[in-house]
Design goal:
Strand order of the largest sheet: 3-2-4-1-10-9-11
Structural class: alpha+beta
Bound molecules: glutamine
InterPro entries: GATase_2_dom, Ntn_hydrolases_N, PRTase-like, PRTase_dom
Helix content: 40-55%
Oligomer: single chain
Pfam family, one: GATase_6
Keywords: Glutamine amidotransferase, Transferase
Shape: globular
Protein name: Amidophosphoribosyltransferase
Strand content: 15-25%
Largest sheet: 7 strands, antiparallel
Organism: Aquirufa regiilacus
Length: about 650
C-alpha cells in the first residue's frame, strides 16, 4: 500500500511436546524452540511494528526456581533486539556449560536438566507477539505478553493477543464492580484480568474439591491436573464484543488460543509429535516448520485450542458462534501474500477489475501502460495482467471466427501484448530524511522514483494499481504528480480494495472517520447537493442512541453515503486527491464489494467497506466515531 493503514498484531505460540532432552539430542541445540519462535515472529513482522515480546514457561521446576521468563522491546527492530539479548544469554550459558564439564565432569552442554535448571527461556511453552497498538501508546508497558503473577503456579497467567474489543470500557467497569482495583486501563490488561479472575475462581473451585483429599504441598499438581480451561474461557469471554485471537499460558504450562465467534481475527495451528504451534498466518507456520499446507488448520471461530500440561490438544467451543465474517483486509493487504490461497485471491482481485479498467481506457490497449505501486499490490497486478491476456484471447478468437482479417491485421492481433512497465519504484532510504517542515511534501514525493521515456507523451494512458486507498494523501502528495511528469494523457488509479468508508474496531488501527478519503468525498457531495442536513440528522440519531444505550443496534452512518452511487463517490475522491496543477485527466477505479466477496469467498468480513459490522459493538463504534467527528474530537471511538 502506498500509504499504510496501521497494522495490527501477530501471535506465535509453540508447545514442545517431548521432553527438552529430545530437542537437545536431535537438533543439538538448547534453542530449538526459540529458533522456531524467532522465525515465526520474523515471518509476521508485517503485522506489527510498534514492538514485540516473548515469554516462556518451564513446566517442571522445583519451588524456588524461576519458571516464567519474558523480554519485550519497542526498539525499531524489536524482534532482532529481543533475540539478540536471548542469544547473548545462551552464548554465556554455553560457556558456563563447558566450564561445568571441565570442573565437575558433568556433560552440561548435552544435559537438558542442566539447561533448564540454570538458563532462562529453556521452557516447553513459548509465546511471541508483534504489536501494533489499537489501545494505549506505543510503550514497553503496553507490549505483550503481559503477566498476571501469583505464588500459586496455576494462578499465573501470561497473555498476548491480536484483538480489539469494542466494549473494553464496559469490561473495565465490570472488573471494578467485582471489587477489583485495576492498575491500568490498557485493554490487554483488562482482558487478562477478566480471564485471570475466572482462572482464580476455577483454582478456588478445584481447591475446594480436593483440599480434604490431599496435603497442601501436593495440591499444586492436583490443581494443575484438574483446572478446566474451557470453563474458564466460557465464563470470562461471554461478554466480549470484538475480534480476537487471544493466547494465554498458565504458570503450570497449559495454554490456550481463543478465537472470536465471528472468526474476525485469524488463527492457525499445526501439530505433530514434537510440537503444537499456533500463528496468525499460515505462511509463518509453513516456512518455520516446513509442513504441508493441508496440515495447517484454522481454529474454528468461537473455539479455543487448549494444550494441556501434558501436551495433549483439544479444540473446544467456549462461546456461541455467530455468522462468520473473517476480515477481508487480511487477504487484501495484511497477511503475507506468499500464502498460496492469499496469492490466488489477490490475483483474482486484480483480474476482476478488468471490465472497469477497459471502460476507463475506452478499450484502447495500444495506448495504455499498466503498472503498480510496488510491493503489496504486485499480486493484484499480476492478476490484472492475466485478466488482460484473457480479454485479448477472447478478442482474437472473435476476430478469427468472424474471418474478416487481412494478413497484417491478423499479425498485429496475434502479436499484441499488454504494455506492462514498472513506472514507480520505492526508494526506501529517502524516508529517513523526511523533515517536519515546509520541505516535507517535496521530500515525500521523492520516496518514489519514476521511470521516464516509456510513455508516449499526451497519447498514452497509465493504469496504476494499488491495494487500497485510505486517506488519499500519498496519491495527492506524491504519486499523481510523479506520474504526471511522464505526461500521460490520462491516469487511472485502481484500488484492489473497495472504498474504505467506515472505521475498524477489531484490531486494525483505523478508527477515525475524518481520515477516510471516501468519507471526505461523501461530505463534499452532501455539501454540493445541499444535503448537509443529513449530517445533523445522523448526528442526532447517533447521540440519542448512544445516550439511551441502543447505539449497537444500527449503523446510522450508512445514511451519509446512501444518496450517492459508488461511482459518484469515486469521482469525488478523484477530485479531492487531484493536485492543482495536474495536466493529465484522472479517474479512480475501486473494486466492487461483490467482486471482493467473489475473490475472497471465505473472508466475507467487509464492514469497513459496507458498514455491516459483524458484532453489535461495531455499530456502537461507528456511531460514536461519527459523533466524535461532528464534535471535532480526534480520538479512537472505542
Ligand atoms: N492490533 C492489535 O491486535 C492490538 C492488540 C491490543 N488491542 C493492543 O493495543 O495492544
Amino acid at each position: 500500500m502506498s500509504e499504510s493503514i496501521k497494522h495490527e498484531c501477530g501471535i506465535a505460540l509453540i508447545r514442545l511436546r517431548k521432553p527438552f532432552q529430545h530437542y537437545l539430542d536431535k537438533y543439538n541445540t538448547p534453542m530449538y524452540g526459540l529458533n522456531k519462535l524467532y522465525l515465526m515472529m520474523e515471518k509476521q513482522v508485517n503485522r506489527g511494528q510498534d514492538g514485540a515480546g516473548v515469554a516462556n514457561i518451564k513446566i517442571n521446576v522445583k519451588p524456588g526456581s524461576r519458571y516464567i521468563s519474558r523480554y519485550r522491546s519497542v526498539e525499531p527492530q524489536a524482534v532482532a533486539d529481543i533475540f539478540g539479548k536471548i542469544n547473548k544469554k545462551f552464548r554465556k550459558a554455553q560457556k558456563l556449560a563447558k566450564d561445568t564439564k571441565r570442573e565437575t565432569g558433568i556433560d552440561a552442554v548435552h544435559d537438558a536438566a542442566w539447561w533448564q535448571d540454570n538458563v532462562a527461556f529453556t521452557g516447553e511453552v513459548l509465546l511471541g507477539h508483534l504489536r501494533y497498538g489499537t489501545h494505549g501508546q506505543n510503550e514497553i508497558e503496553n507490549c505483550h505478553p503481559m503477566l498476571r503473577q501469583n505464588n500459586w503456579r496455576s494462578r499465573n497467567l501470561v497473555m498476548a493477543g491480536n484483538f480489539n474489543m469494542t466494549n473494553v470500557d464496559d469490561l473495565f467497569d465490570k472488573l471494578v464492580s467485582l471489587g477489583q482495583h485495576p492498575k491500568e486501563k490498557v485493554d490487554t490488561v483488562t482482558v487478562m484480568e477478566k480471564i485471570g479472575h475466572f482462572l482464580d475462581e476455577e483454582n478456588q473451585r478445584q481447591f475446594g474439591k480436593f483440599k480434604d483429599q490431599y496435603e497442601n504441598p501436593e495440591l499444586s499438581d492436583v490443581l494443575a491436573a484438574n483446572i478446566d480451561l474451557k470453563r474458564v474461557l466460557e465464563r470470562s469471554c461471554k461478554d466480549f464484543d470484538g475480534g480476537y485471537a487471544m493466547v494465554g499460558m498458565t504458570g503450570y504450562g497449559a495454554s490456550f488460543v481463543a478465537r472470536d465467534p465471528a472468526g474476525i481475527r485469524p488463527a492457525y495451528y499445526y501439530m505433530d509429535e514434537e510440537v503444537v504451534v499456533v500463528a496468525s498466518e499460515k505462511q509463518a507456520i509453513k516456512t518455520s516448520f516446513n509442513c504441508a499446507y493441508d496440515q495447517i488448520q484454522e481454529i474454528t471461530p468461537g473455539h479455543a485450542l487448549i494444550i494441556a500440561m501434558d501436551g495433549s490438544v483439544e479444540e473446544v467451543p467456549f462461546i456461541d458462534r455467530i455468522e462468520q465474517k473473517s476480515c477481508s483486509f487480511e487477504r487484501i493487504y495484511f497477511s503475507r501474500g506468499s500464502d498460496p490461497d492469499i496469492y490466488r485471491e489477490r490475483k483474482k482481485l486484480g483480474r476482476l477489475l478488468i471490465p472497469q479498467i477497459l471502460d476507463e481506457v475506452k478499450q484502447d490497449l495500444k495506448h495504455t501502460v499498466f503498472s503498480y505501486i510496488p510491493n503489496t499490490a504486485e499480486s493484484a497486478f499480476l492478476g490484472m495482467i492475466d485478466g488482460l491476456e484473457d480479454h485479448l484471447a477472447k478478442e482474437r478468437k472473435q476476430a478469427i471466427m468472424e474471418g474478416i482479417l487481412f494478413e497484417d491485421q491478423l499479425e498485429e492481433l496475434l502479436t499484441f501484448r499488454p504494455r506492462v512497465e514498472k513506472l514507480i519504484s520505492k526508494d526506501v532510504k529517502v524516508r529517513t530524511f523526511i523533515a517536519s517542515d515546509a520541505m516535507r511534501d517535496d521530500m515525500v514525493s521523492h520516496v518514489y522514483d519514476t521511470t521516464y521515456e516509456v510513455i508516449e507523451k499526451n497519447v498514452d494512458s497509465v493504469v496504476l494499481i494499488d491495494d487500497s486507498i485510505v486517506r488519499g494523501t500519498t496519491l495527492e502528495k506524491s504519486i499523481l504528480s510523479l506520474l504526471d511528469k511522464l505526461s500521460p494523457k490520462k491516469i487511472v488509479i485502481v484500488s484492489s480494495a473497495p472504498q474504505i468508508r467506515y472505521p475498524d474496531c477489531y484490531g486494525i488501527d483505523m478508527s477515525k472517520m475524518k481520515e477516510f478519503v471516501a468519507f471526505r468525498a461523501a461530505l463534499a457531495l452532501l455539501k454540493e447537493r445541499n444535503l448537509e442536513h443529513i449530517l445533523d440528522e445522523v448526528n442526532l440519531k447517533c447521540m440519542l442512541a448512544l445516550e439511551n444505550g441502543t447505539a449497537s443496534q444500527e449503523n446510522f452512518v450508512k445514511a451519509i453515503y446512501a444518496p450517492f452511487t459508488d461511482q459518484e463517490i469515486s469521482d469525488k475522491i478523484a477530485e479531492i486527491v487531484k493536485p492543482k496543477n495536474l495536466q493529465a485527466e484522472l479517474s479512480i477505479v475501486y473494486q466492487t464489494v461483490e467482486n471482493l466477496n467473489i475473490a475472497c469467498p471465505n473472508h466475507l468480513g467487509d464492514w469497513y467497506f459496507t458498514g455491516n459490522f459483524p458484532t453489535p459493538g461495531g455499530n456502537q463504534v461507528v456511531n460514536k466515531s461519527f459523533v466524535n467527528f461532528m464534535k471535532g474530537i480526534e480520538v479512537r471511538a472505542y
